[in-house]
Write a structure and sequence with these properties.
six-stranded antiparallel sheet; Alpha-D-phosphohexomutase_SF; 604 residues; single chain; eight-stranded mixed sheet; Alpha-D-Glucose-1,6-Bisphosphate, Chain A, domain 3; 3 domains; TATA-Binding Protein; 19 helices; alpha/beta
Length: 604
Amino acid sequence: MKIRPRLLIVGLMLAAVSALSIPSTTLPTPTSPISGMKPGTSGLRKKTREWMSPNYLPNFVQSILDVALTSPTASSSPSYSILIAGDGRYYNNEAIQTIVKILAGNNVPNILIPKFGVMSTPSVSSLIRSQSNCVGGIVLTASHNPGGIDDDFGIKYNEARGQPADENFTNQVYEKTKTIREFKIVSGGEEVVDLEAEAGTSVVVGGTRVTIIDPFEVYVDCLMKSFDFGVLKKFVSDPRVSITFDGMHGAGGPFASKILGEILGVEELMRCESKVDFGGIHPDPNLSYAKDLVELMGMKPDGTASKDKSSKFTLGAANDGDGDRNMICGKGIFVTPSDSLAIIADRCRCIPQFKDGLKGVARSMPSSAAVDVVAERNGVECFVTPTGWKFFGNLMDSEEAFNKKSYSPFLCGEESFGTGSDHIREKDGLWAVLAWISILADANEGNDGDLVEVRDVVERHWKKYGRHFYARYDYEACESEAAEELMDGLRGLIGEVGGGGGGEIQFENCEEFEYTDPVDGSFSGKQGMILNFTMKSTGDSARAVFRLSGTGSSGATIRLYLEQYDGKNWDGSAPERLKGLGEEAVRISKLRELTGREKPTVIT
């Protein structure tokens, strides 16, 4: 079921009859299963060279189609469409050409492709939702992972409501990859579609119409319905205000140029040209990889204020490789994603989309409980889910798709720099930036004196709700066996009860997070190990969460999340406050002994 009406302009594109036809023949091509094609939380990510190896890409795409084309929309509509788009990384356009031929070989009636083949992940979700006959989208992205022939490439599938495919879908795809014997592909040269053609241009490949579309129009319209652009533009034009944005050469950059630059008038835009290797950087907006932004905002590498350098900017923000993640900073202050979510929830009514308040909020389990406190105090239902945006999607669609209770208007987020709402079914980096501009505009309404800064907003929030000191330690490319041994060792602590002793940080218990979806009843086990602590001097809670990441392309990443609540004393830096908790978590887990790692690869 579609939430928004089909847009006329795209309908006209699909109805066009003057399209170049490329003669071709469907060639069923024998193949055999390739091991290791199990999708993670956001699709399948592997090294680019592996995707370029014989039959790797066709095997996975054919397996997706063998599941997707059995959907009710595809089965009942003779004119359904599938969107193909990517984040612009190395191999993006070559893969699109191959995927077009595979879709044509499987008799997909219509294919939509953005001009240049590049769209941010949020814009993909928005576009899919706008089309009444679109069964989904094949999205070529490895998100925040580096791009290049020696780096990462990925593919995920978004379903008809614009949401990432759920575990039922991805498990079926994985099973197909283990039994595949042939893929269907039409003949033709390496390039069957001109990705530089103007929007509205069509070509027929085999019996499939391929239409080039405007990547911006639908998404810009969606955001304009969520925010008051007049208010935002007025605030941006205030001579006291200066905003900077780092696109990290990802797919979100051109969208930022369009929305922040052309429409709102933000002048300080960095690295907003999409590049196949993201300009040689790691396109992950955090304190470690967004170093230029951190320095511009007058911060030290740990996110605390620099004593040697101030900043002229009111707000600093960044997006990742596919434009779905965000980083928010003020002068000399880094806003943790968990705090950002809680502050947006508390100040939601300044955003037109939420003018009547929220019905539901959700966070991933490793995220801090800051939003829980806001929700409880304001009578809003709050959910804690496994990591993965698809779990939020079910809650957003509870009424529309499952005929259950409505939680919309809905706000959600995760500690991994993802924030979003029910305007689409993906996290949305630009949406978060616009939300923060809205908050600052509201905080400064009628104020002709000193500007209310990001730091003021954050500290007022801490004073009202208390502070959740928070940090994440990433131990990347660990031996998989060592990582699994660590998790098994923690499972051995379940049932043990701590307490007592003379230390400030007192271990209470260990638990494993499991989740039964309240909407569709699906069960997700082994979602992370939680060590719970109590601070002896204050009685406040603290915890350490261990989780293995499913988004890397090789090895295992051990993520250690540290959280300590303080309801009264919110001064000080998170690194200092959490140092003891981190040492205790490493000791209990035997992380150093098992992995040989003396320190994390990345701290955020």
